[in-house]
Structure prediction request, 441 residues.
Amino acid sequence: MQEKIVKTALEKGADEVIVKIIERDDVQLRFSNNMGDIANRWVSRNIMVFLALNGRTTGFEISRPENMEKEIEKGVEFAKKLPENPDFMGIYDGKLSPAGINFEPIDDELSEYGKIAMDSALSHKIKRVSGEIYLARHRIKIATNYNSAEEHRSYLITTARAFNHEGNPGQASTHIADKGDLKRYGPEFVGDKAGKLAEMNVNVKEGEEGNFTVLLDPLCFGSTITEVGSALSAFSVDSGMSFFVGKLGEKVASDVLTLYDDPHSPGSGMAGFDDEGKATQKTITIEKGVLKSYLHSTSTAKKYGVESTGNSKIGGGYFSPGGSIMPGFWQNRVEPGKRKMEDIMADIDRGLYIANTWYTRFQDRLKGDFSTIPRDGIFYIEDGEIKEAWKGIRISENILHMLENIRELSSELIPVDWWGETVRTFAPYALIDDVRITKAR
Prediction:
């Protein structure tokens, strides 16, 4: 069908066309108060079209395939009325050579996975646990007037939030795609970590203001890296919405930070080709603290005089007509360190361990000024040991300042993903010095 749509759009007058079809068969199990309560399944097909005509661009969804020709004709006529898009310089016009992603898909056993997550959490001294098991199974089909491609993408997101008898929480959330990762980072791992954090989160005291050495959990550090990944988009840079403007080739972080966009590892952001039909690639964006590359589509790459990095996309894997000029990351992967989290914590004289954050908001994206609210476990550390649990604080920082002050990264690398705050990231624990803590007023 996708090839037919491309042909029809060209016949109607389009110069370049992208058709993306997503066939979804997703299942979800939600649980609360220590038992499964809601099961859902969504089966759908979305047909999305991007077309360019004399430098003008538009995108739309074909809602009724039987009216395909009329909807395409309507889209072409609409494009003719638009002004030229100065940021569009064409789509990928080569032949596709996808690397291919090898993984063994996870079985549809959500009721069993939910039980595993709950039992694992309840093995700790907690009162109740809630969460979600979400298995996404997608067939992606791409066709342009230059090439076509098709692949299966499937992943499992497990989220658990445990509550102790004081009502204080602990949370964990991971994304995996390969069945071999079920034991390492699946429901048992998530439930155990959420329960452990909640068990620790007792006798909570009001936190103090000041500048602290902070050990960020992978779920928490993943939120920072998610913002970094978004700021690496060439479109974000050009639009002045990135703290990396004018910093290509410069030192932007500590020597210990090396960051990749890694679409080929099994996970919730894996992809063998982008929304222009170009093969994706592993792209080093920050190497030992130096900004090496932005993320590019064909149009942004031509503007910068470089090759596309295969990042024509925007959002959580969904098509957008802006994808050809608004590239985005697939999966962030941080190069891990050499020591375990426990050994790193043992060296902290006075500091904090923060498990998660919520409501990350920027006051100035160009400068990198932001604030975020820690949750699901804030622990004061003294002489390498957790002494007490805190509440009521906020991280009020500059993201470049934090990146520059990363002292050490752990050897553990956790695939974290949680509801828009931390998006499809492989992150270690991160020890960061001189982090400004304020009251959450």
